[in-house]
Amino acid sequence: MKNFIMIMTYVLTPAMCWCQYFYQTYPEEKAATFYSIIDHKNSVLISTGKICELWECSEVTRFDYLGNRIWNTEFINTDVGSATLLLLNDTLYVGGNYNPGKAISVINRMTIDGKVIDEHIYSDSLNRFERSLVNQLCSDNKVLYFSGGSYIGNGGKALIYSINKSMDLNICYLDTIQENSVVWDAHIGPDNVLTCFIMENGFAAPRDRRRIEKYDKDLNLLWKYQPPDSLLWLGNDIYLRGTVLNNGNIFFSYYKFGWNDRLPNLRCIDTVSKQTKWEYDFPNISSHKRQVLRTKELKNGDILISGQYATFASNPRIRNSPWLMRIDRNGNRKWEKAYVELKPDGQDKTGALWDAIELENGDIMACGFVINDNKQVPLLIRTDADGCIDQGQTNCPTVQIIDLMTGAVDEIGGPSISIYPNPASTYITIDASARSIYTIYSLSGQEMMTGVVDNADIDISHLNVGFFIVKVIDRSGNIYNLKLQKI
């Protein structure tokens, strides 16, 4: 069903982002967070949930690989879900909860250049629930599956919508097994069927019972896995999130009974035998916490995990900070890093990474939020394949990158240099220490010019219109990468 929709689209001039690897925040007037990120033709598409004038709304933004906005489209009536951004055949699907409304879900379709195609609204014709909260959107290229939870009073059931190619609702499915259940993750695997990760939130033991189920296109149950200890009272901080790997196995975050209830256990199971292929246990330290928010399989079979890390053992303590981890296909941890932004008083700003992807060259881009002045601010980072960010970066807050395997700490931010005017047409000045060496490169890496900083104007009139990277090396050997726009 098509309805009137309030939408605003903006084509944006690039915000300055200073080097290939970065940690960048994007302040909004009110609280906001980046949720999902998709790689597409030398750019990324990101969904944002935020607070608007009357209720929660959302937007989709296209960024280049350097973190500059290309265009932005706002959906006034859509409270976007945490994993409801989907790209199919150059059409973007943006799902969420419809505002104003308590039991209404919505999917917006748009072109890859930010133009809205239409809006489709869904609800249960039998009125079996009062409220709904959808958080996942996936497809087998024939059917869209829209999932989350439905609620009546203090209870509710896992909810799945099946939607055909014409965007008509086929089925509204509610969980038939247990009250108080929610679909926490959903994926289409190589078997081309829907796999749902369901957690049951009971108010008395057994609590937080978890199960993984597969459904056919008509939402008939095909396969079910329930860990042997899933009936036990389990830690409430560990959510069942996972993905279906390319070999058909299932990877998910779980909980190890008797351990710290803030630490997940990572498992991989064989879908045929339902036997555990491998599992990874974090050190069982009561003062540490990790929360898995998204998992992705990379091109070489490694698994990238994004979420939140905390430890109360450090001084200052890290309450919750953006976190990434990479493990290989056999469950061996390759690296694990927390990105801890420090406030002027030395305490950390809380935050999380909701999603992360691998770029064609192996770099990682991840999105989420940090808390600035008691307000959520969207966060976008780009790292190399090992989760590292260049040192000597400018236009960046003071961020400690803590290697959770070795304890080593790298710090980005620090001494600031700048280029002005920027954009520029004829001359620029580099504000850096005298006798620093600068080199200007095209975005393809071709050296265009080089020289010594001496506080004199630098003539760039001969450069073509476009973007360039200015690399500056000061007398102490610190390297700075800045972006220059020639107009």
CATH superfamily of the largest domain: YVTN repeat-like/Quinoprotein amine dehydrogenase
Number of domains: 2
Into which percentage range does the β-strand content fall?
Answer: over 45%
Q: What general outline do the C-alpha atoms trace?
A: globular
- The CATH architecture of the largest domain comes to 7 Propeller
Mean pLDDT: 85
The tally of helices reads: 0
Q: Structural class of the secondary structure composition?
A: mainly beta
Number of strands: 38
Helix content: under 10%
Span of the ends, CA to CA: 46 Å
How big is the Rg? 24 Å
Low-confidence stretches: 1-19, 391-395
Biggest β-sheet strands, sense, barrel:
6 strands, antiparallel
Spatial arrangement of strands, main beta sheet: 23-24-25-26-30-31
Task: Give a nutshell description of this structure.
The chain has strands at 7-11, 22-25, 32-39, 43-51, 56-64, 69-75, 78-88, 91-98, 105-111, 116-122, 131-139, 144-152, 155-163, 169-174, 181-188, 194-200, 209-215, 221-225, 242-244, 250-254, 265-269, 276-281, 288-297, 303-311, 318-327, 333-341, 351-358, 364-372, 375-383, 399-403, 409-412, 418-420, 427-431, 437-442, 447-452, 458-459, 466-473, 479-486. The protein contains no helices and 38 strands.
